[in-house]
Amino acid sequence: MHLFVDQVITFCEPGSKVGWIDNAFGVVLEQWVTFQETVDGITRVTAISEMVGGESINIGGKNAMELLQNVMRDWSENYRTVCDELAVSA
């Protein structure tokens, strides 16, 4: 199955925060990712998503919220893996 999502970047402050809106299947999703350096030199990454619509979506037995949770879990895990690999090579 192919999924086409329209995305529009609504805010970008490089190294600090990025925000965007996704539209697909009657769902509007606002997402924000922030990067905050802590006192010990670690970067805290926070991802926030707000969803409107999608009450009638059912793909593979999953509703829109379950799909979003799966995407965010996979995104976070992939992001962590890449960051860990870059930290080892640095």
Polypeptide structure, described:
With 90 residues, this protein is of the alpha+beta class. The protein has one domain (6-89). Helices cover 29% and strands 41% of the residues. Strands 1-2-3-4 form a four-stranded antiparallel β-sheet, with no helix packed on it. A hairpin with a 2-residue loop joins strand 2 and strand 3. The longest helix has 26 residues, at 64-89. It starts with 5 loop residues before the first strand and ends with a helix. The model has no long low-confidence stretch (mean pLDDT 88).
Please give the structural blueprint:
Elements (H helix, E strand, L loop, with lengths): L5 E8 L3 E8 L2 E11 L5 E10 L11 H26 L1
Antiparallel strand pairs: 1-2, 2-3, 3-4
What would a concise description of this structure say?
The protein has 1 helix and 4 strands. The chain is α+β, with helices and mostly antiparallel strands and 90 residues long.
